[in-house]
Design a protein that fits this description.
Blueprint (H helix, E strand, L loop, with lengths): L2 H38 L1 H9 L4 H15 L9 H18 L3 H18 L8 H11 L4 H13 L7 H22 L40
Helix pairs in contact: 1-2, 1-3, 2-3, 3-6, 4-5, 4-8, 5-7, 5-8, 7-8
Length: 222
């Protein structure tokens, strides 16, 4: 085969490869938005809002999260471990009655530790841990984000009125992610809105825990 023919074949191969790559890229461009939106749900909308409505910038960020953490496989919990975590969460909710701010800080630490036990990045790498959780628990990761912020800021209010209401709301949001991480069906929060509310009893596949009424304050002893 002459040198000219070799060069011609190389050019043809290069053109075919470039064309194939262009078609793949075009296909991803058409499907990236809808598929990412389905994958991330409310986290997709939140990310778009953070990018001031720039869908392309938001999708680049979400695609990056998928590339970094999509292959992560959650480590399992045995029944004894699940029971211990459930008891710890019940203690957090009990503490909320008298010490809302401290209870929220406890919930933040508990979720950080639990996520690490399930195979996510360690809690001291909070942003990375949050990104990984957003890939596998997009429906409820914002509960962790909210309780983490509340733990860091104390919502800037006293432990009464609006401040306590915000703390309670953050704790309830975090409960959804806790249930996901301790469920026997990873990634699925199977409790309904009613059974997940403080003061009610749900039928979870993991051990049940007593859930105190978070808005009730005990009278102070004189």
């Amino acid at each position: 085969m002459s040198t000219g023919m070799i060069i011609a074949l190389a050019v043809i191969v290069a053109v075919v490869v470039v064309g194939a790559l262009a078609l793949i890229a075009r296909g991803r461009g058409r499907q990236g938005g809808p598929s990412l939106k389905r994958r991330f749900g409310p986290e997709y909308e939140r990310t778009v809002a953070l990018h001031d409505g720039d869908h392309k910038a938001a999708e680049r960020e979400l695609t990056g999260r998928l590339e970094r953490h999509g292959a992560l496989r959650e480590l399992s919990l045995d029944s004894a471990e699940r029971q211990r975590w459930t008891e710890r969460w019940a203690a957090v909710q009990e503490r909320f009655v008298d010490s809302p701010r401290e209870a929220v800080a406890d919930a933040d630490r508990l979720l950080s530790e639990l996520a690490a036990v399930r195979g996510y990045p360690a809690g001291e790498r909070y942003e990375e841990q949050l990104d990984a959780l957003s890939v596998h628990h997009p429906e409820h990761v914002d509960g962790y984000r909210r309780v983490h912020l509340a733990a860091r800021t104390g919502t800037g209010a006293a432990e009464s009125g609006a401040g306590t209401e915000e703390l309670r709301s953050a704790l309830l949001g975090a409960r959804a992610l806790f249930d996901d991480l301790t469920s026997t069906e990873p990634g699925r929060h199977r409790a309904s809105a009613d059974t997940d509310r403080p003061g009610t009893t749900g039928t979870h596949s993991h051990a049940r825990s007593h859930t105190p009424v978070l808005h009730r304050s005990r009278p102070k002893e004189s």
